[in-house]
Amino acid sequence: MSGDSAIRYQSSVHELQKRLMTAYYADLTAIAGGAPGRTAQLLIAGNPVEILRAFDMIPVFPEVNALQLAARKGSLAPIQKAEELGYSTDNCAYVKADIGLWAAGGVAPFGTIPRPDVLVCNYVGCNVYLNWFEHLAELLGAPAMNVDIPFLRTAGGIPTDEDVRYVVAQLQELIALLERITGTPLDERKLVAIVERSARVGELWARIKELTKRRPAPYDAYFDSVTMMAPLYCLRGTPECVEFFERAYEEMAARAEAGAGPLPQERFRVVIEGPPPWPFLRVFRDMFSRWGAVAVASTYSTVGGLWEFGFRHDPAHPLESVARHMLEANLCNRSLLQRYEQIERYAREWQADALVIHSVKSCRLFSAGQGDMREHFVRDIGLPTLLIESDLEDPRYFSQAQLRNRIDAFFEALEQRRLTAASSKDAPTAVRS
Amino acid sequence: MIDISAYREVIEDRSYPTVREWRAASGGKVIGCFPVYAPVEIPYALGMLPVGLFGGGNRIEIANADSRFQSFICSIVKSTLELAFVGKLDVFDGLLFHSICDPARNLASVMERNFPERPAVYVHLPQNLASPHAAPYLASELRRVAEALSPIAGRRLRDDDLARAAAAYECVRGLLRELYALRSARPEAISTGELYTVARLATLTDPLDAARVLARVLEGAWAREAKPKDRIRVVLVGSFCEQPPLELLESLEAAGCYVVNDDLLQGWRWARTAVALDADPYMSLARAYVDASVHLSTKHDLRTPRAAALLESVREHRADAVIFLGAKFCEPGLFDYVLYRRALDAAGMPHLFLEFEEKMWLYDRLQGEVETFVESMLFAEAAS
User: N or C terminus of chain B: which is more exposed, having fewer CB within 10 Å?
Assistant: First the structure.
């Protein structure tokens, strides 16, 4: 174990992401101030951003706004404002931060969020999404549409033909709505070009994820992936997004070739499940870094899209591929048991030593039943598993000392296990499959 | 009036005596239906008995499920899982879960992993109700559910069986609508405790038997001569999934309320009006759900704001106040409360927020709160 680190986690990818996101929020602020441009509010899970981009609508994700507030230590005040308005301590804090943000006129430290021209509730797994946008529709009075995505619920975990037809039909309804709002018909060639860019980005993102199979992993697939996720959602479909992922792949591939990792020494390879505690991201990361623990895969990085197992958008079938992305190629619309399979595959193919489950109170889609997940991985798979709790947005649920104790105890035990295995000449890191 | 008190023990008994009797008599299979709304007509048409699965109530100690679901998850999810762990669900051959909330969805997976011998069929309920594609999609989903349940039943579903099942449940819902209307018109004729008991019984019995009981209760209630008491008329909302203990409902009434409408067991009373069956019973049920069902907390219909529906219920039932009785940690209910509160404040309608857990067994504090609320209203009325 190293002492508390002063590790600099930033790379040129982080710097480029900051520049892109600053420009993104500058555009939104300009529109809020009266500059021309249209925005649509939608949600991260399996989003149909390609269709909005085809109408030159800038996608705005309330989850991204909420996490930006939290990462800048600014989430508590809007959360408390929402609680004054009647929201419960047991409601999702992302929603509360967003409601509090609107109560402040959409003005945040990182920019001003314009009132949307349309609310598109892509109901992809998360039931809170439906409540959230029902509230926003009342609060903001913008035209609203629920895009209803049937949950993956059949044996084999694939959508039915009827599911695909139903979603495509709704996407056509969405297009009709956007045509009414913008007064312009869909430019199909433009949509195809955007979907082509999404396909390219999906390919690059999948290749970037493949790189963490190397030892050492060239970046942390949890803490550094979140950096790459913002452009993936806010800018997907644009040339800037393609360029970002090309640069990101080049940088990560070069690091892999050079044998460089995010830490001076990679001692433990972990899979991390669950969203990060945004208000304490750096503190939380340090708790793992001091043990030389690097995430080689994470489920959180697949909430908006699961590309590493082969899915790509298809310019030849743009609407159907957007529908399939929403239906099957993202974590949120897949069952808890499919998530177990995803983690098992990570543990096996990315050769992880352990699973860390970060259970957050706000997001029950993620957290409900994670005790069963621990049970499965410990008893059935034989993978050392740590379950810790805090929140993704509400700083009141982050107990630093308690978390650190739990994490320290877990890695101490892992280290002991490794030493014992080495002394008995057993393979120390094998995962039973 | 028949003696409803005899049914109290039946609805609380998690050995499911009526279900075991039905099974012994018919030799049929049993499907547990998690709230809120289940297409019960389908298992019934397949010769199986659909049964309301409303958690463990306050008679089960959670010893195993706490290790699977965290402290911030509602009680019904954990107590339902606990029932399975302690063998109380052995009488069920399969389970139906629906896309009502995130914990309930994940419970379906946890059940499937831990009890693979009891298939858990998951139903997707459409949420784009403004779309012309919603009803045809739901009809196709109901067909898929019928296919998924067929192996448990050991036979395929025929359209005429489904039409007969739909008629049987329509009869039950029709009688419940009449009982609800009677309670609103003459709340002294049937208490909420009584109405709840027989409505809950209907989730545990064959619909033909349930209809006989409900018809007798309706007849008895009409004939009952009771003097109205000086109570306020309230609409009760928030208890659409996890159910409050019967004693808690009775304590609300004892505190000075006539409950004139509620959302208890609402998924079993989902149709606003009689469901008209045409040649395609799947489509008939789907259309009724999409266009003519009550406002369920777990159904998001952008065509009508849910707070407007609550205000309409208040007007229709001439309520003096609204009591929000929400299950602890129930996120859909807690979200609704914000919209309700805003609308009720704007309409000048008094309201009270209460939180319950199915496992609670002391009601003094909540009853005290309601008494104070009622007194303040009666005092304001007297002073005006």
Answer: C
pLDDT in tens, A214-273: 999 999 999 999 999 999 999 999 999 999 999 999 999 999 999 999 999 999 999 999
Q: What is the largest CA-CA distance in chain A?
A: 73
Residue A6: inside a domain, yes or no? no
Question: At residue B138, what are phi and psi to the nearest 5 degrees?
Answer: -60, -40
CA dist A328 and A150 (Å) reads 10
The shortest CB-CB distance from B133 to any of A169, A340, A376 is to A169
The vertex-A206 CA angle with A49 and A121, nearest 5°, equals 25
In a domain, A7, yes or no: no
Taking Cα atoms as reference points, which of A354, A345, A361 lies closest to residue A398? A361
Q: How far is B212 from chain A (nearest CA, A)?
A: 37
pLDDT tens digit sequence for B74-118: 999 999 999 999 999 999 999 999 999 999 999 999 999 999 999
Question: Which residue is associated with the tokens 């996101």?
Answer: A21
Provide the domain limits for residue A285.
Answer: 12-423
Query: pTM higher than 0.90, yes or no?
Result: yes
In a domain, A269, yes or no: yes
| DSSP H/E element including A281 | helix A281-289
Cβ within 8 Å, pair A365-B339? no
Please count the CA atoms within 13 angstroms of the CA of B1 that sit on its side-chain side. 16
What are the tens digits of pLDDT across the range B294-343?
999 999 999 989 999 999 999 999 999 999 999 999 999 999 999 999 99
Rounded Cα distance, A209 and A218, in Å: 10
Residue A5 covered by a domain:
no
Chain B nearest-CA residue for A123 = B127
Domains of chain B: 16-154 (3.40.50.11890)
